[in-house]
Amino acid sequence: MSLPLDLPSEAHRLVERLTEYNDAYRRGAPLVKDAQYDLLVSRLREIDPEHAFLHRVEPERFSGKREIRHPVPMLSTDKAYTPEELERFVVRVEKEAGEIGVSGVRFRVTPKLDGLAGRDDGTYFVTRGNGQSGYEVSSAFAKGMIPVGGRGRGVGEMVILRSYFQEHLADAFEHPRNLVVGIVSSDTVNELAKKALADEAVHFVPYAELPSWEGSGAEVLLRMDTLTEELSAQVDYPLDGMVVEVVDEDVRRTMGATSHHYRWQIAVKRKGETALTVVREVVWQVGRTGKVTPVLMVEPVNVSGATIRRVTAHNAGLLEKKGLGPGAEIEIIRSGEVIPKVEDVLVPAATTLPSVCPSCGSALARENDFLLCGSEHCPDQVVQTIEHWFKILGNADWFGRKTVEKLVRSGYDSLEKVYELGEDDFRAMGFGPVLSANLAEAVYLSRTREVEDWRFLAALGIEDLGKGDSRKLLEQFRLQDLSTVSREQIEAIHGFGAITARSIADGIARVAPTLRHMLGLGFKIMPTGAAREKVTDSPLAGKHVVFTGKMRGSREDMQEQARAQGALVQSAVNSKTDFLICGESVGASKLAKARQFGTAILQEDEYMRFVGVEG
Description:
Elements: H1 7-26, H2 34-47, E1 67-69, E2 76-80, H3 83-99, E3 106-113, E4 116-120, E5 125-127, E6 133-135, H4 139-143, E7 146-147, E8 154-160, H5 162-168, H6 176-185, H7 191-198, E9 202-206, E10 213-216, H8 217-232, E11 239-246, H9 249-255, E12 261-268, E13 273-286, E14 291-303, E15 306-312, H10 316-322, E16 329-334, E17 341-347, E18 364-367, E19 370-373, H11 379-393, H12 401-409, H13 415-418, H14 423-428, H15 433-448, E20 451-452, H16 453-459, H17 467-474, H18 487-491, H19 498-520, E21 525-526, E22 544-548, H20 555-564, E23 568-570, E24 579-582, H21 588-597, E25 600-603, H22 604-610
């Protein structure tokens, strides 16, 4: 039975409501309970998992507060809900560590606080914001928020004492986080918040101040449940699981990050709730790269406080293997605030795979478990490509799904065409005068506001080339030279396998005309990596440098400063390394390798004097 759904308009209405509720929440005056908000977010994930609202930190609008860019992105954390998922993380870490000669990898486990993330460098206190930049909220300390361990302790969480909240505030606030948000975002706070501040119950807790445990991967896997109990008992703050992360800085550097999370860190949370339901229908949707994936429409069932009607099924191969067709009886699981997935198939049913694209009607191809639409003019793919461009570029608003769909329907089905549009063109398509002016300004701003070269590359939507790998690629090659880079050259970069390198090389060839066209429009691109202008009078110019050990300040900041002076920052010592910069607790093997290659070894103070910076 077909379900009558007007998904694009429903998604638009949902985002409008979520934006309103989020704004109120950020002001500390929530209009709905957390459970209701989460239910709406879940529904948006179900009907439009690619929507820009879901792929960024929910926006903060702190009026009158200065926006400050983070020196290092404040990324999210990947999650593990089962022992098997945690084990896969540990195995992956140890494998990558072994590839750079690190054995006996140690892991740190710390409580995961459930509050409002922030960063305190001693001068500025900045919210997480959108992950790239946040708002300066040092006024929270003036109001009475306690910086645990003092100012300038880095990244942490703004929270209220759990025992205090339960005793004094549980009846007045849905969640402790609501109180904290109100204190940070509002110029004035209510009487309950004032009392909590006066009682010194509201804290900024740097992650470095949290109790922790360190041990091997095998110990983590064996003792995770016990560690969770022991560490939770030591913390009087709202918790949301545990964080497991790699201790060794070189392994961290090697593993790097995706655009969403650091690969060397994972949050361990409890497995989600499950429920039984029946598949009504299989709906097929087209992704940005042409993959046609199934979504199961199921009999409505309540899981973790949300009414579930749609369940992800990943790919066509899974449907065939599991018997996921109309009438199948399944067990579903909802882990965290994400779209549910199939946990088990109790009674399978026959399913029929589509032969043509549901968006454009082109014949579908089969590649392993996936169905692919190869049409360059497929409306769904074009819409998502344009929406992806503006979302990743991140320097102009207004180009949401509904707007882009209208552009594509009007024949503006490429980035090249969109950048030819002016205010009159938008009005001719039926946009109102105010929105037309905003859209025209957004097109202009996206070209004239500075954007990093790796972000520009990632925005092109090449498969297997997200923000993290775009940065890595541009550390070796200039943006304007990418069309001449071969698959073999990409594969030679650490972290790029043969299959990924081939996919990226093919993708670069496919978008090369668009890349050349967009570069010709005069975008204000900030060069990084191989394209950054080197400082020739610096003692670091052209030198290969490795930072290791515990530094007094931020290692990431030191690396960026070294790059700005023309250094080539490495993650591990090899025959090319000129300088090894050492903090505290440097491993003997790393020092031995540096001596073996004749690498100059500098302590942190010596390095600071060497580059002309006061220690």
